[in-house]
Amino acid sequence: MTLQQLRYLVAIADHGTMTAAAAAVYVAQPALSRAVHALQRELRVTLFTRTGRTITLTDEGHRVVRLARSALATVDSIPRTTAQPATPTGPPLRVVATPMLAMAVIGGVIPRFRRTHPATPVEVTYRGNRDELSETLRTGHADIGIVDLPVDPRLTAHRVRSLEVVLTSPRGTALPDPVSLSLLDGLPMVLPSRGSTRRSELDGLFALAGVHPFPVVETDERVTWVSSVLDGIASLLCFRESTFRTFGARAEVRSFAPRLARPFGVVHTPGPLGPAARTFLGVAARKPASGGEGVATSDHAHASPAP
């Protein structure tokens, strides 16, 4: 799934036909059609039906469009992270991040970095998981990565701080706040696919706590994670910061007791960092003025992955 596919889908919803949507986003109609049909195949849902040239969104299509608008608004709120300054003094700083860390961290770090390095362009790309992010760094397609730890041992990692892991549930879920890990036993949850790295880490956390959540949805598709909560199907483990940005007041967010946290860091291939990358690391390590991101790490922090 790409941001471009989401923009195309939103354009179709706004303009009603493939032709009008393609014109609105300045792309050939066949290219737009292929991209959106590929998105449907990836999500394994029918997003729209066609009657002649007119396109009508299905119920699932409306949900995905709603989530796509939210995701695009979040990305667009990052202040022009790929814009070139008028007089650049050197090559861009290429940053790669996973989507959840992008929402929780990148949006706050970039503006602070630009205040100290206004002439250094920053290019941000996104990868779906830690393995893809590590490969992007190892193949030289990015200079530094923002990712939750631990990470590929072939990379150099600088632990920055921790983000709180919270339980995000459909509105009306009968649970206390804060919630204990024991109450996850039997709780309907959306979880990563079996066999994935994150699923193994979550299963380790559940085994440590002696609980067995009920996996209603098992997928690596983040759109499905979000829609499962909004549709009242299941609860989800997320970083607090990204949860607020994604759900707002449309879901219930509970801390754990004891509090859970996940460390994240700046990672790169072995070797010294350049001046811009060192500054970026320092900026990322500083706790935001709001205090919303930095939390104390609990005894379970090493085993509390968030999707």
Condensed summary:
The chain is built from ten helices and eleven strands. It is of the alpha/beta class.
How far apart the termini lie comes to 16 Å
Strand content: 15-25%
Proportion of helical residues: 25-40%
Number of helices: 10
Shape: globular
**CATH class category of the largest domain:** Alpha Beta
Radius of gyration equals 20 Å
CATH topology of the largest domain: D-Maltodextrin-Binding Protein, domain 2
CATH architecture of the largest domain: 3-Layer(aba) Sandwich
Q: Can you write the helix and strand succession as a string? A: HHHEEHEHEHEEEHEHEHEEH
Largest sheet: 7 strands, mixed
| Tally of distinct domains | 3
Low-confidence stretches: 79-86, 290-303
User: Helix- and strand-based class?
Assistant: alpha/beta
Number of strand segments: 11
Explain this structure to me?
This protein is an alpha/beta fold and 307 residues long. It has three domains: 3-76, Winged helix-like DNA-binding domain superfamily/Winged helix DNA-binding domain (Arc Repressor Mutant, subunit A), CATH 1.10.10; 93-160 and 264-292, D-Maltodextrin-Binding Protein, domain 2 (3-Layer(aba) Sandwich); 163-260, 3-Layer(aba) Sandwich (D-Maltodextrin-Binding Protein, domain 2). 39% of the residues lie in helices and 20% in strands. It has ten helices and eleven strands. It has helices spanning 3-15, 18-24, 29-43, 59-76, 99-116, 130-138, 197-209, 222-230, 240-247, 275-285, and strands at residues 48-51, 54-57, 93-97, 122-126, 144-148, 156-169, 188-191, 214-218, 236-239, 252-254, 260-268. Helix 5 (99-116) packs across helix 9. One of its GO terms (molecular function) is DNA-binding transcription factor activity. One of its GO terms (cellular component) is protein-DNA complex.
